[in-house]
Amino acid sequence: MPESPEKPHTIAQEDRNVSGERLFSPSAARNRDAIRDVFLKHMPVRGKILEVGAGTGEHAVHIAAAAPGLVWHTGDPDPASRASIAAWMGHAGLANLKGPHAIDVTQECWSAEPENPFDGVISINMIHIAPFAAAEGLFAGAGRLLKKTGKLFLYGPFSRDGAHTAPSNAAFDASLKARDARWGVRDIERDLIALAQNNALKLETIVEMPTNNYVVMFCKI
Ligand SMILES: C[S@@+](CC[C@H](N)C(=O)[O-])C[C@H]1O[C@@H](n2cnc3c(N)ncnc32)[C@H](O)[C@@H]1O
Q1: CA 120 – CA 152 distance, rounded (Å)
Q2: Is 122 exposed, middle or buried, given 0-12, 13-18 or 19+ CB atoms closer than 10 A?
Q3: Pocket lining: 85 vs ligand 1, CB cutoff 6 Å
Q4: 129 touches 183 (CB < 8 A)
Q5: DSSP-assigned beta bridge partners for residue 72
Q6: Contact (CB, 8 A) for 87 and 108
Q7: Using CA atoms, how far apart are residues 89 and 149, in angstroms rounded to an integer?
Q8: CA dist., res. 166 & res. 175, Å (int)
Q9: 31 near 209, Cβ under 8 Å?
Q10: Residues forming beta bridges with residue 209, ordered by sequence position
Q11: What is the per-residue pLDDT across 122-140, written as a single tens digit (0 to 9) for each?
Q12: Above 50 in pLDDT, residue 5?
């Protein structure tokens, strides 16, 4: 179905529970240990990280607590998410968490600190539940904002060279597209690697994760 330029820009979130200003994502509770462990194994653990689409802020708190050598900047375009991130930051009391910044990767020249490059950019469960322009903006920003040694880290459900990796991912893709025809599970080979090539990035590592998800990491060319 063609995209409708008139369609309002919708921002979708995962299911969330509420406690005061802090939001709790059941999916983040399930995947945060596995994501943290892969992050610590493959990504820089010193320097500056920028997380886009940080949602409730739970991944930021969880990983920043395990990597005190990092300064972890959080960003999200959604005000309720930013309020939750701020509340989680206050609750955690970690000196190495910054933001939340109002970052929408579909905007031109988005950044938390335009004058300073980052050691890593991370986005968890974002590009399938947003128009493809968000994936394009994420890769363009990563190409622009990362240091020469910097890396882009993505987590989510992805298809492989045109094929879903599980029936549940095919059903999820169909449900995303039914909600908004611009959304959908992205393909590692056909979407992400092409975007990387256009933005001076190359595929570095793919890690299979529980429940048919992947971590996909890119480095600068
Ligand atoms: C499904 S939620 C995932 C949140 C969190 N990363 C997690 O895994 O729990 C998607 C998040 O991406 C954010 N988002 C949507 N469009 C975006 C955009 N254009 N730029 C940056 N973030 C965006 C939403 O506000 C939301 O917080």
Answers
A1: 6
A2: buried
A3: no
A4: yes
A5: 49, 97
A6: no
A7: 28
A8: 14
A9: yes
A10: 213
A11: 999 999 999 999 999 999 9
A12: no
Residue 183's nearest CA partner among 8, 5, 6, 10 is 10
- Sheet of strand 201-209: strand arrangement: 97-101, 70-75, 47-52, 118-124, 146-156, 213-220, 201-209
* Cβ–Cβ < 8 Å for 154, 216: yes
Beta strand extents in 55-209 (DSSP E only): 70-75, 97-101, 118-124, 146-156, 158-159, 186-187, 201-209
**What pLDDT does 17 receive?**
67
What are the tens digits of pLDDT across the range 57-103? 999 999 999 999 999 999 999 999 999 999 999 999 999 999 999 99
Residue nearest to atom 22 of ligand 1 (CA): 53
Residue nearest to ligand 1 atom 11, measured at CA: 53
pTM beyond cutoff 0.90: yes
Write down all domains in the chain, each with its CATH number in brackets.
Answer: 17-220 (3.40.50.150)
Whether 44 lines ligand 1, by a CB cut-off of 6 Å, is: no
Q: Which residue has the tokens 């882009």?
A: 152
Place of tokens 């995947």: 31
Which two structure tokens, joined as six digits, stand for 119?
A: 């050691």
